[in-house]
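Below is a filled-in request sheet from our internal design queue. Each sheet records the structural input a requester submitted and the sequence that came back. We keep these sheets so that new team members can see what a complete request looks like end to end.

REQUESTER: design group, bay 2
PRIORITY: normal
MODE: inverse folding
CHAIN LENGTH: 131
BACKBONE (tokenized):
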């Protein structure tokens, strides 16, 4: 059964270093700062269920990141508006994720980048886009 759309009141995640986030709102920049201050460069091994993921931010999607039944935000009718391709070998200024599950999440003001295969997968998304 789908968790979308999320209709609960705002509930800010109380612990940004948690391994599992459920039914909370997470600001990606705050999450990045919490991990970076703990000496962690990549956000990995996390699970987000029924969460609102908020930007503005660009998420660097790498190995082991899975999206199940997610609303990626309002692409103004075109998923290509949410996908950014780096012009060089690196995507500086992004928030990197690895080995992370997003299940029934909604993304707000978040762009996505990563390897070409990841970008192609995102571009093939047709459900739960911009509800």
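RETURNED SEQUENCE:
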């Amino acid at each position: 059964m789908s968790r979308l759309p999320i209709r609960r009141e705002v509930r800010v995640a109380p612990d940004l270093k948690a391994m599992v986030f459920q039914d909370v709102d997470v600001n990606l920049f705050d999450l990045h700062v919490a991990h970076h201050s703990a000496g962690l460069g990549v956000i990995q091994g996390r699970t987000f269920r029924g969460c609102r993921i908020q930007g503005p931010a660009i998420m660097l999607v790498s190995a082991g990141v899975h999206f199940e039944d997610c609303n990626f935000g309002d692409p103004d009718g075109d998923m290509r508006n949410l996908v950014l391709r780096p012009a060089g070998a690196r995507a500086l200024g992004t928030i990197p994720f690895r080995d992370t599950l997003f299940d029934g999440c909604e993304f707000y003001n978040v762009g996505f980048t990563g390897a070409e295969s990841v970008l192609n997968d995102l571009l093939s998304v047709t459900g739960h886009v911009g509800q």
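SHEET NOTES:
- The helical segments are 28-37, 116-123.
- The radius of gyration is 14 Å.
FILED BY: M.R.
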